[in-house]
Amino acid sequence: MKVRLDDRQRGIARTAVWVFSICLLIGIAAWRWSALVAVLRKVISVLSPILAGLVLSYLMNPLQEWLEVKFGKLTDKKQPHPRLKRALSVSATILILLAAIVGLVAAIVPELISSIKNLLVNLPEYLTNMTDWINAHIATLKDNQPQLYSMLMNFWDTALNTANNFADQFEPKLDNIASGGADLISTLTSSA
């Protein structure tokens, strides 16, 4: 016996198959969630440069099209050169993007280095203030729980000495990094 379905029944059957398939996929995803997340992380890590390129090209497209019109007016005096104006506009857009990146780096890096240097210079004062605050808040433990108090104080003294040693060792290196960064920025800006 052959069953004949009309259009309404076929639509209901298609919907039922889709709902069943989606529920099955959701069930498998819930059952193997950690494996699914691992696969998604790998896919995203592979696709992230492609996605970044797509976003960047999408954002730079209006500038490129505007430059193409402007270069078209310059190059199309006697006869049209569509490939030339396209190449010039793409090249100019990439140069503008690179100049913007170099400008941002040149503006941000020196400020970041000076902020880190100020933090390292003021670190002993910050640590002294924190030590006073900690001593004020755990002073009640000194009488009630002397072992916990001594353990916390030993831990804090070790952390304080480690932070001071780090600041003393890292500050001269930061000056070298700052001078090298300044040289790199000046080289990049002069070559750009």
Q: Which key terms come to mind for this protein?
A:
mainly alpha
Tell me the fraction of residues in β-strands, as a range: under 5%
Termini, distance in Å?
Answer: 80 Å
How many distinct helices?
4
Kindly name the structural category: mainly alpha
What global shape is seen?
A: flat
Helix content: over 70%
Low-confidence stretches: none
Radius of gyration: 32 Å
Number of strands: 0
Mean pLDDT: 82
How can the largest sheet be summarized?
none
Give, in order, the helices and strands. HHHH
Structure summarized in a few sentences:
The protein is mainly alpha-helical. It has helices at residues 7-31, 33-75, 82-144, 146-191.
Describe this structure in words.
It is a single chain. The chain has 192 residues and is mainly α. Helices cover 92% and strands 0% of the residues. Helix 2 (33-75) crosses helix 3 (82-144) and helix 3 (82-144) packs antiparallel against helix 4. It is flat, with a radius of gyration of 32 Å.
What topology emerges from the helices and strands here?
Blueprint: H1 7-31, H2 33-75, H3 82-144, H4 146-191
